[in-house]
Design a protein that fits this description.
Blueprint: H1 3-6, E1 17-22, H2 31-40, E2 44-48, H3 58-75, H4 80-120, E3 125-128, H5 142-153, E4 161-165, H6 170-182, E5 187-193, H7 201-208, E6 215-221, H8 225-239, E7 246-251, H9 256-265, E8 269-273, E9 285-286, H10 287-295
Parallel strand pairs: 1-2, 1-8, 2-3, 3-4, 4-5, 5-6, 6-7, 8-9
Helix pairs in contact: 3-4, 5-6, 7-8, 8-9
The structure holds 1,3,4-trihydroxy-5-OXO-cyclohexanecarboxylic acid.
Length: 297
């Protein structure tokens, strides 16, 4: 089965799936992104939740509640004794907040996802949260991260796929895979190396293909034309020998070629940006650049 078929995307040409990362933070508006998205019309959007979700974490939300209560108190004209008593009460309220957090967290995550789906309309969405250790922006612990992703999967919103990193703790990884499969969402198992192109890239892909994931992705840093050609050759040599669709790319300037030509070697998706300022990985081209390069093939 091709990746297009698996993700139920219409097939308009023989080109790979173009996915645009959505990397908006909490203070940013969706409008300009949505407008460009509709103009440029890629196949999919990858919601990089790590750019925004931490702003709604338990610690951040408690700080907001606490600050609100403290500000209210500061405006009241109360004695030192009363103030001390009320401050102690705020601290007690923390326990109540913690007890209520799981339900609040579910509601917050659902609202956040609702905003994303409302903003990008009909475009299929890949859910990705990547921690700083995995090359992303997220600061959640592995457990918080897994809770976030599983909650998002169970939110009822129809994600087209979920992306998880191969380096994630195996038990947590399986928990996410099981949750995704329960609600019929395909899993992209990803491997990133932001420094080099590992010499054993083929073995890494074959190893990942043994896991119960539906799509395999490898993104590695290219430091030379040779690295990029190696990655393309590896892609060609393993794409047919694994049962899942494969996505590969060389990151960095040397790797740009792989984002254009990868599909000739068996990579079925390429990531591109709507404008040159919002890269989610080094070396990404714009959708317009990609189209131009394909016209010249
Ligand atoms: O895994 C990938 C590929 C990527 O790292 C790239 O190099 O284009 C960009 C990420 O947003 C995405 O999750």
């Amino acid at each position: 089965m091709t990746l297009r078929e698996l993700l139920q995307l219409p097939s308009t040409n023989n080109k790979p799936i173009i996915t645009v990362p959505l990397t908006l933070g909490p203070a940013e508006k969706f409008g300009p992104f949505t407008q460009k998205l509709q103009q440029q019309n890629p196949d999919m959007v990858e919601w990089r939740a790590d750019y925004i979700a931490d702003s709604f974490s338990q610690a951040v939300m408690w700080q907001q509640v606490k600050l609100g209560a403290q500000n209210e108190l500061a405006q009241k004209d109360v004695s030192v004794m009363t103030e001390a008593k009320m401050l102690a009460e705020i601290d007690n309220a923390k326990q109540e907040f913690e007890a209520n957090w799981p339900v609040m967290n579910q509601q917050i995550i659902k609202e956040l996802i609702g905003t994303v789906f409302d903003s990008i309309g009909e475009f299929p969405v890949i859910l990705t949260y990547r921690t700083t250790a995995q090359g992303g922006q997220g600061e959640m612990s592995a457990v918080e991260y897994a809770t976030f992703v599983v909650t998002a999967l169970y939110s009822g919103y129809p994600f087209a796929a979920v992306d998880i990193e191969y380096s994630l703790d195996e038990l947590l990884r399986q928990k996410i895979i099981d949750a995704a499969h329960k609600v019929g969402i395909p899993v992209i198992l990803s491997y990133h190396d932001f420094n080099i192109t590992p010499k054993n890239s083929a073995a890494i892909i074959l190893d990942m293909a043994k896991q119960s994931a539906d799509i395999i992705k490898l993104a590695v840093m290219s430091q030379s034309e040779k690295d990029t050609q190696y990655l393309l050759d590896v892609t060609k040599s393993v794409a047919a020998s694994i049962s899942q669709p494969l996505i590969t790319m060389s990151m960095g300037d040397f790797g740009k070629r792989s984002r254009i030509e990868g599909y000739h070697y068996g990579s079925e998706m390429t990531f591109a940006v709507l404008d040159g300022t919002r890269l989610s990985a080094p070396g990404q081209l714009t959708v317009i650049d990609l189209a131009r390069a394909w016209q010249q093939e």
